[in-house]
Amino acid sequence: MKRVSLTQYLVEEQRLHNSIPAELRLLIEVVARACKTISHAVSKGALGEVLGSAGSENVQGEVQKKLDVLSNEILLEANEWGGHLAAMASEEMETIHPIPNRYPKGEYMLLFDPLDGSSNIDVNVSIGTIFSVLKAPEGMKEPTEKDFLQPGSKQVAAGYAVYGPQTVLVLTTGDGVNCFTLDREMGSWVLTERDMKVPEETKEYAINASNARHWYPPVKRYIDELQAGDTGPRGKNFNMRWIASMVADVHRILNRGGIFMYPADAREPDKPGKLRLMYEANPMAFLIEQAGGAATNGKQRILDIQPGKLHERVAVFLGSKSEVERVTSYHNE
Ligand code: AHG
Ligand code: MN
Ligand code: MN
């Protein structure tokens, strides 16, 4: 089998569709290289002294794990000097990170969740990295948070890495979704799945059911119907999976179909959900739509939401199109 590397894929994509300018290609390669470094640290575990808490909290009041902090540093360092970026933003940093003046600046802006699934780090369950790429607004001089507040439909690239039994990188630049597997011995990303499509037919759903008593009626109705199985209105049995790492749940859905939900609920009525719009929901929604699926906040398409602030949260329903449309229609009834 002829092996196609990430570099070769990006160069060919540029030649064929003119969709990946050199600066964007550099950006993607640098992010992929950073993910390789994170993957290496993750795989060392206790031997690399990377497990456990960092003893600090992020802006969302969550305890930071050592790997949250380390992955954030790896991504910042890797992306600072290349000249492809104007600024970065991360789950782990309260404010945006402009490129220091000692480096040239580029026209892209990078957002990331450096380590997704933090609660799984110490128990050796799949975790990952999520990223989203925007273009700096025309004429931007000194980047501010406001420049980042663009709807997800403006993303020019998005992707995630999963550090699991294999390390994979799933990428879109708006022309379908492709999956690369890390060849650890060679140190290279190899294209292993072209043009991924979310299977339309599904019998699987993902939701943290421990919150069931807090769910609002549309979610409760949808899940009740799934759980009623072949004797209920859906006429078939559904199985449930919840990994508690969005990357791993989304990766399963891209490969096998299904629906992922993290709804808003009555615990904190003012909170629109748990997941963050700009570096979790938007990149995943872009990937899922590019693979033929759908992503909403229960009412509207996630990619259409105009963000109001960098760390804004959002309810998420994504995956197989007909399922997402159904639960969305229950919200809109
Ligand atoms: P992070 O580790 O970046 O904070 O994200 C964790 C997210 C997401 O990956 C996962 O689906 C969800 O939180 C799990 O939440 P529960 O612990 O409520 O199940
Ligand atoms: Mn996350
Ligand atoms: Mn995270």
Main attributes?
333 residues, alpha+beta, Fructose-1,6-Bisphosphatase, Chain A, domain 1, 8-stranded mixed sheet, 5-stranded mixed sheet, 8 helices, 31% helix, globular, binds 2,5-anhydro-1,6-di-O-phosphono-D-glucitol
Give the secondary structure arrangement, pairings included.
Blueprint: H1 6-17, H2 22-44, E1 53-57, E2 63-65, H3 66-80, E3 85-90, E4 97-98, E5 108-116, E6 127-135, H4 145-148, E7 157-163, E8 167-172, E9 177-183, E10 188-193, E11 204-206, H5 217-227, E12 239-240, H6 246-256, E13 259-262, E14 275-276, H7 277-290, E15 294-296, E16 313-314, E17 316-319, H8 321-332
Parallel strand pairs: 3-5, 11-12, 11-13
Antiparallel strand pairs: 1-2, 3-4, 5-6, 6-7, 7-8, 8-9, 9-10, 13-17, 14-16, 15-17
Helix pairs in contact: 2-3, 5-8
This protein binds 2,5-anhydro-1,6-di-O-phosphono-D-glucitol (AHG) and manganese (II) ion (2 copies).
One manganese (II) ion binds next to strand 5.
The bound ligands are: 2,5-anhydro-1,6-di-O-phosphono-D-glucitol, manganese (II) ion
Number of domains: 2
Main structural class: alpha+beta
Helical residues, percent: 25-40%
Q: Give the ordered list of helices and strands.
A: HHEEHEEEEHEEEEEHEHEEHEEEH
Sheet with the most strands? Answer: 8 strands, mixed
Largest sheet, spatial ordering of strands: 4-3-5-6-7-8-9-10
Task: Write up what this structure looks like.
There is one protein chain. This protein is of the alpha+beta class and 333 residues long. The chain is 31% helix and 24% strand. An eight-stranded mixed β-sheet has the order 4-3-5-6-7-8-9-10, with helices on both faces. The longest helix is centred in the N-terminal third of the chain and has 23 residues, at 22-44. The chain starts with 5 loop residues before the first helix and ends with a helix. Helix 2 (22-44) runs antiparallel to helix 3. The chain folds into two domains: 6-193, 2-Layer Sandwich (Fructose-1,6-Bisphosphatase, Chain A, domain 1), CATH 3.30.540.10; 204-332, D-Maltodextrin-Binding Protein, domain 2 (3-Layer(aba) Sandwich), CATH 3.40.190. It has eight helices and 17 strands. The protein binds 2,5-anhydro-1,6-di-O-phosphono-D-glucitol and manganese (II) ion (2 copies). One manganese (II) ion binds at residues 113, 116, 246, 280. The site of 2,5-anhydro-1,6-di-O-phosphono-D-glucitol has 12 residues, from strand 5.
